Amino acid sequence: MEDKEIRKAGLKVTAPRLKILELLETCGEHHVSAEEIYRLLLADGEEIGLATVYRVLTQFEAAGLVERHRFEDGYSVFELNRGGHHDHIVCVTCGKVKEFVDDTIEQRQREIAEDKGYEIGDHSLIIYGRCRDPGCPNHGKADNKD
Amino acid sequence: MEDKEIRKAGLKVTAPRLKILELLETCGEHHVSAEEIYRLLLADGEEIGLATVYRVLTQFEAAGLVERHRFEDGYSVFELNRGGHHDHIVCVTCGKVKEFVDDTIEQRQREIAEDKGYEIGDHSLIIYGRCRDPGCPNHGKADNKD
DNA sequence: TAGAGCATGCGAAAGCTTCTCATTTCCTGC
DNA sequence: GCAGGAAATGAGAAGCTTTCGCATGCTCTA
Ligand SMILES: [Mn+2]
Ligand SMILES: [Mn+2]
Ligand SMILES: [Zn+2]
Ligand SMILES: [Zn+2]
């Protein structure tokens, strides 16, 4: 099943590639680092190298199968490209990430690019804030001002 | 003159801090890396260490004097905090950066944060595209689709 | 002007990511 | 099914940005 997508990307169908793709499919909206993928596969009994995980993720990204994001700390996290574009809102306290799409913002971006003399390509919008989840260390603290 | 700002940040007024602040002032809307700052100061005859540049930039950032951004490649670039917030549009071909502010987008972000149950803090919006400058390698190429 | 403490420069180290290379695996054509 | 050539892998070394540790130097207050 995933064979098709890998072949379409011009890549050989190998165990590491299949396993990484499978794992990403189970992740849904969860964003995982290369290191996490590596450890999860190891724990699953797979024999795989960290370098391979990085290589494959980069290839998948180039092929449009996978998206890479860099949140505040600057390190890479990955997720399956599930078709539609979306942006992210991240809790700076607990790290929780939610996704959103806003047509107004998307439209304004196209207008801004046009206005500034750019042919628009991609974009990255990340909102940082504090979530109100009971489990978040931030929970309860009324309104911290720093 | 810059003494005031440094002191206000609770930091001692030292040659490295003054020089870095001065240099950033000459940069205007240009975004510079720590390494660039380091080399520019060295070329200017200053005796300074790269570790100090990083340390000072981090302190300035914490004090709100300086802003740090990470464009596509993930490395840090810095600019003086010139008061108002702004976002960036970057040419993926030549690297040219322009700044913009859009009230509609800013407002929608606040609504999204509210909607998703986050107390909004900062955000990072970077549009990637291709500029139409005569000097840009992209110039002339009608509309490349990859 | 002297003292306490903060800041600096240097080199070493951290942490993520990429590279190198010998070995293995995949895939095409027989 | 099998062999050959190309592509991919795993392991460790290396690369790069950024941070740390520490002996020395500088600032600032009194
Ligand atoms: Mn996502
Ligand atoms: Mn800027
Ligand atoms: Zn949270
Ligand atoms: Zn350009």
Describe this protein's structure.
- 2 copies of one chain form a homodimer.
- Chain A is α+β, with helices and mostly antiparallel strands and 146 residues long.
- Chain A has 2 domains: 1-83, Arc Repressor Mutant, subunit A (Orthogonal Bundle); 85-146, Dna Ligase, domain 1.
- Chain A contains 5 helices and 5 strands; from the N terminus they run ααααββββαβ.
- Chain A has a 3-stranded mixed β-sheet with strand order 4-3-5. In chain A, strands 1-2 form a two-stranded antiparallel ribbon.
- In chain A, a hairpin with a 5-residue loop joins β3 and β4 (97-100).
- In chain A, α3 crosses α4 (50-63).
- The radius of gyration of chain A is 18 Å and the shape is flat.
- Chain A starts with a helix and ends in a 15-residue tail after the last strand.
- The model of chain A has no long low-confidence stretch (mean pLDDT 94).
- Chains A and B meet through α5 and β5 of A and α5 and β5 of B.
- The complex binds manganese (II) ion (2 copies) and zinc ion (2 copies).
- One manganese (II) ion is lined by residues 29, 31, 79, 86, 88, 99 of chain B.
- Chain A binds a DNA duplex (30 and 30 nucleotides) through residues 11-17, 33-35, 47-52, 54-56, 58, 74-76.
Largest sheet report of chain A: 3 strands, mixed
Net shape of chain A: flat
List the helices and strands of chain A in order. HHHHEEEEHE
| Secondary structure: number of strands of chain A | 5
Q: Can you identify the CATH superfamily of the largest domain in chain A?
A: Winged helix-like DNA-binding domain superfamily/Winged helix DNA-binding domain
CATH architectural arrangement of the largest domain in chain A:
Orthogonal Bundle
What hetero molecules are bound to the protein chains? Answer: manganese (II) ion, zinc ion
Structural class, from secondary structure content of chain A? alpha+beta
> How many angstroms separate the termini of chain A?
49 Å
Radius of gyration computed on alpha carbons of chain A: 18 Å
Q: How large is the count of helical segments of chain A?
A: 5
Neighbour order of strands in the largest sheet of chain A: 4-3-5
The CATH top-level class label of the largest domain in chain A = Mainly Alpha
Regarding quaternary structure, what we see is homodimer
Query: Spans of chain A with pLDDT under 50 lasting ≥5 residues?
Result: none
Helix proportion of residues of chain A, in percent? 25-40%
Largest interface: A-B, 35 and 35 residues
Report strand % of chain A.
Answer: 15-25%
Mean pLDDT of chain A: 94
